[in-house]
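Here is the promised in-class demo. Please do not try to memorize the tokens; focus on the logic of going from shape to residues.
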């Protein structure tokens, strides 16, 4: 369809800039020929990533931080190195345009990108801010017709957060490098999120289970029964002699009954005796209590609830959810996916109500449209809820989507339609059954039932639960139709033992929920935060559970003891409040930053700045301190103390620079204790005294095998982080660094060897590798070597695999030549059998297996491969985790193959001169004039080729960075 007049630029050319190429492509289809739509490819300008990017005129702290803290916290912005070519292109397009439309997302990040574009491009033509919440023809037409001005408050709010996070990260992270381990990072929200996960694990470690027993009875009405009126039903013992029987909720985390709990705690003997005493008892119905049941629809999705439900129902991580949602938004299927709002526009409400009537009938449509109040304090990005785009919702089948995009769209569509349907109604029933045991004790059982008489919105959608054992809302439990006084027979009475369980670990869904409820951080950044704490090794996954590493225990311990307020939950929430007040124009950024960074003197000597800073805070007068002072005095931080944790029986868990280990103190003071490495993927609550003793009992440390007769140096065997190995001990005066450094000979043990059986002779043989086998007829040397992927032969650049490690020492030159005489195998070897079968993938509906690949184990459904992460184990990986890895891989899309193409182009370019030379030799008799003309033509051709190459490089860079809208807040 051709654009209408209102969509076509009148009297000139308009440049529209959006963030991503995918978004640009979709919008371009809705605008006329007078519009040029181009992508900025995310942020084009930001704080420098290191001192090397800072202009030379800045020195000292400004160069280190990228922020001039002495001059009102002026940020030093630099154009990203990978965006310079794109900025140049945008400037060229702007020079040919009569008007500029900045069409980035309408949130803080989008507003900041628009402001940076305006600052860098320096347009001399009118500038408009074009905003929309969905990418549809009508929405884009409306946005062009009704532009607005740039919102400087949103820009200032984003800049304040960016500066705050830069100061936090660049000041606190170096403390972690010095006291814990290099390469670590701290962040305003990531550190608090890590603390939440660590605290939950501490609760699990301190937890002591309690055992309690009760009875379960199967009772019969004596009638045959059917689906609507069952003849039998189950009930659980609730009281004995009028005293409530203890359940799990009555015990503390230490396994003791709570104070004031007037309950009967049954042990196994009591429970079995009571069950036996009730074997011949006649039971009667003591009471039947019926109440009406009503359940209202769930609100439409906002960012966090979408992440939670996608995790529960689809197995997506927060990051994968946002990646898929971004694609759906950019291609015009859903509204903007970063929102705190549950509001639906009038158009959306009408579309949802129309589909309720069409798909489910008028009986399911309420008389009035439903509206939902926002639950998020200081809600940002005040858009609509996340919903299908347009004024008529496409059903999932109508979209033509497949895979993860289809599943996420279907989830959003169902939730949106259900939000405008009637309540589900029914009845909940509680039946009390009583009887007297042979020993005279009175026992009362209780059964609960639920029937749904009108499913309402549940016809379209039912929300998932974080607890896998929880009962979903639409689950019915039908009880027989009984009345008070009815007699019942006991078909079976059984004694059941239970044990209290430690608090469940967080999942991505429940951690997102916890952060939001505590008002920590911003929902739009939670996916980035989760990705950061996983990538940094602070947290790893066991199934869907988030498990803190021992490293995170050390980091959180340091932050709690020496930077307590920075990881305090209330403090972080208050900072969020202050930042929102700055965004609303109720407080000033600079005084607030001054107080956060420099602090405020007790006697008020700061004068006016101190007063202004106090006013910029939230009024409690002391929740902001001086970060600079905190990170300056590090003398009180004992690196060994903050990285040490008692296990029991004198054994300590320590986090060293090369990983966690357990240590038993030495018998003699001053000597090094007995140590053993702890597996990186061991959940901290599983490190018991018994397991620590087991680790310490394993062969570890240095085992002296003897002395090398040739060098006189001791040869030892060790158990390293990458497996057992042998090495020589160099003299103390041997230079270990610099150009004269000497490295000891080292070799890994064969798979058939172990530390407790390896001999000196074995070690010397291993360290003799690589072994020269001989030479081929042309004099090229053949060596036998042990590599990362096993034993192999090498002749020049030609390598051939060996079948067994022992061949490294036994293969002869004739056998080696025979191997080289065979044609080299190309492609893949015969497929290995799968290591584990996981089940059927819910997306591709194909079997998922774990296989062993060249770079380690991976999961595959035959279409998509996903490498197992460091924290995944072949033996323990669950089907859900396998599906999640595949979903994340699909969300990323196919890898770009730009490097090979570039290499091919370079090769082609290099071949051209050879052809020219041949041509010159052939045409030696041609005139000088012709030669000159030929050279000019060649030069012009080169220039054209160069331009094409540059254009291709620019396009490649653009594609590589597509959809990379930086979450920029280093939260």
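The designed amino acids, position by position:
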């Amino acid at each position: 369809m051709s654009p209408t007049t209102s969509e076509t630029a009148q009297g000139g050319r308009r440049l529209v800039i959006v963030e991503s190429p995918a978004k640009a492509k979709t919008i371009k289809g809705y605008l006329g020929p007078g519009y040029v739509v181009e992508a900025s490819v995310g942020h084009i300008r930001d704080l420098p990533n290191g001192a090397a990017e800072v202009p030379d005129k800045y020195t000292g702290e400004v160069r280190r931080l990228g922020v001039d803290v002495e001059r009102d916290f002026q940020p030093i912005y630099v154009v990203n190195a990978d965006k310079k070519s794109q900025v140049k292109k945008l400037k060229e397009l702007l020079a040919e345009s009569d008007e500029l439309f900045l069409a980035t997302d309408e949130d803080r990040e989008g507003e900041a990108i628009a402001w940076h574009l305006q600052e860098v491009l320096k347009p001399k033509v009118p500038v408009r801010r074009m905003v929309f919440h969905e990418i549809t023809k009508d929405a884009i037409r409306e946005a062009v017709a009704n532009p607005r001005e740039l919102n400087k408050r949103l820009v200032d709010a984003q800049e304040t957060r960016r500066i705050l996070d830069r100061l936090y990260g660049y000041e606190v992270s170096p403390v972690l490098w010095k006291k814990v381990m290099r390469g670590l990072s701290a962040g305003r929200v990531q550190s608090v999120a890590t603390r939440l996960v660590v605290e939950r694990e501490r609760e699990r470690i301190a937890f002591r289970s309690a055992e309690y027993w009760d009875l379960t009875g199967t009772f019969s009405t004596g009638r045959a029964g059917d689906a609507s009126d069952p003849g039998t039903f189950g009930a659980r013992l609730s009281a004995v002699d009028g005293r409530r029987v203890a359940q799990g909720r009555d015990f503390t985390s230490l396994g003791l009954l709570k104070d004031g709990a007037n309950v009967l705690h049954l042990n196994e003997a009591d429970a079995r005796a009571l069950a036996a005493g009730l074997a011949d008892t006649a039971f009667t119905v003591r009471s039947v209590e019926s109440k009406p049941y009503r359940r209202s629809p769930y609100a439409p999705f906002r960012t966090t609830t979408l992440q939670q439900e996608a995790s529960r129902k689809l197995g997506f991580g927060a990051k994968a959810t946002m990646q898929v949602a971004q694609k759906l938004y950019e291609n015009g299927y859903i509204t903007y996916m970063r929102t705190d709002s549950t509001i639906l526009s009038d158009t959306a409400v009408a579309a949802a109500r129309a589909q309720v009537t069409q798909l489910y009938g008028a009986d399911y449509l309420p008389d009035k449209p439903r509206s939902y109040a926002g639950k998020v304090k200081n809600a940002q990005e005040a858009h609509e809820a996340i919903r299908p785009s347009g004024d008529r919702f496409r059903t999932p089948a109508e979209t033509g989507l497949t895979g993860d995009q289809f599943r996420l769209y279907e989830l959003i569509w169902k939730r949106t339609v259900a939000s405008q349907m009637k309540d589900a109604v029914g009845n909940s029933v509680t039946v009390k059954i009583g009887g007297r045991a042979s020993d005279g004790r009175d026992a009362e059982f209780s059964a609960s039932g639920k029937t749904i008489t009108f499913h309402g919105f549940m016809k379209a959608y039912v929300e998932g639960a974080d607890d896998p054992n929880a009962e979903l809302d639409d689950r019915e439990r039908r009880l027989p139709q009984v009345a008070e006084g009815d007699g019942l027979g006991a078909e079976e009475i059984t004694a059941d033992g239970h044990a209290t369980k430690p608090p469940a670990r967080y999942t991505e869904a429940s951690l997102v929920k916890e952060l939001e409820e505590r008002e920590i951080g911003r929902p739009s950044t939670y996916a980035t935060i989760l990705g950061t704490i996983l990538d940094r090794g602070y947290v790893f996954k066991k199934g869907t559970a988030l498990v803190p590493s021992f490293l995170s225990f050390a980091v959180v311990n340091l932050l709690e003891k020496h930077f307590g307020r920075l990881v305090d939950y209330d403090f972080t929430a208050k900072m969020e409040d202050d930042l929102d007040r700055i965004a609303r124009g109720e407080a000033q950024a600079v005084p607030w930053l001054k107080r956060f960074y420099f602090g405020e003197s007790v006697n008020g000597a700061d004068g006016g700045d101190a007063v202004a800073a106090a006013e910029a805070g939230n009024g409690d007068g002391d929740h902001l301190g001086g970060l600079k002072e905190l990170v300056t005095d590090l003398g009180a931080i004992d690196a060994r103390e903050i990285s040490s944790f008692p296990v029991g029986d004198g054994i300590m868990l320590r986090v060293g620079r090369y990983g966690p280990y357990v240590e038993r103190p030495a018998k003699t003071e001053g000597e090094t204790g007995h140590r053993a490495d702890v597996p990186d993927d061991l959940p901290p609550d599983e490190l018991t005294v018994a397991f620590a003793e087991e680790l310490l009992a394993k062969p570890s440390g240095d085992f002296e095998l003897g002395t090398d007769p040739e060098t006189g140096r001791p040869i030892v065997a060790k158990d390293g982080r990458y497996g057992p190995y042998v090495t020589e001990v160099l003299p103390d005066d041997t230079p270990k660094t610099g150009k004269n450094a000497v490295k000891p000979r080292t070799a890994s043990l064969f798979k058939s060897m172990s530390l407790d059986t390896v001999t000196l002779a074995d070690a010397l043989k291993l360290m003799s590798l690589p072994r020269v086998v001989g030479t081929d007829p042309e004099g090229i040397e053949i060596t036998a070597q042990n590599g990362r992927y096993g034993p192999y032969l090498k002749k020049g650049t030609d390598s051939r695999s060996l079948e067994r490690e022992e061949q490294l020492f036994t293969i002869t030159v004739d056998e080696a030549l025979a191997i080289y005489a065979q044609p080299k195998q190309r492609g893949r070897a015969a497929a290995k059998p799968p290591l584990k079968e996981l089940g059927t993938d819910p997306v591709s509906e194909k079997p998922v297996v774990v296989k062993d690949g060249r770079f380690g184990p991976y999961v595959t459904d035959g279409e998509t491969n996903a490498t197992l992460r460091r924290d995944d184990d072949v033996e323990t990986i669950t089907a859900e985790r396998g599906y999640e890895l595949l979903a994340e891989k699909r969300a990323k899309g196919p890898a770009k193959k730009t490097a090979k193409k570039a290499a091919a182009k370079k090769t082609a370019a290099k071949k051209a001169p050879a052809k020219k030379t041949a041509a010159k030799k052939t045409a030696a008799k041609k005139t000088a004039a012709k030669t000159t003309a030929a050279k000019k033509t060649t030069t012009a051709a080169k220039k054209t080729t160069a331009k094409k190459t540059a254009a291709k490089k620019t396009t490649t860079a653009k594609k590589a960075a597509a959809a990379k809208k930086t979450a920029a807040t280093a939260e």
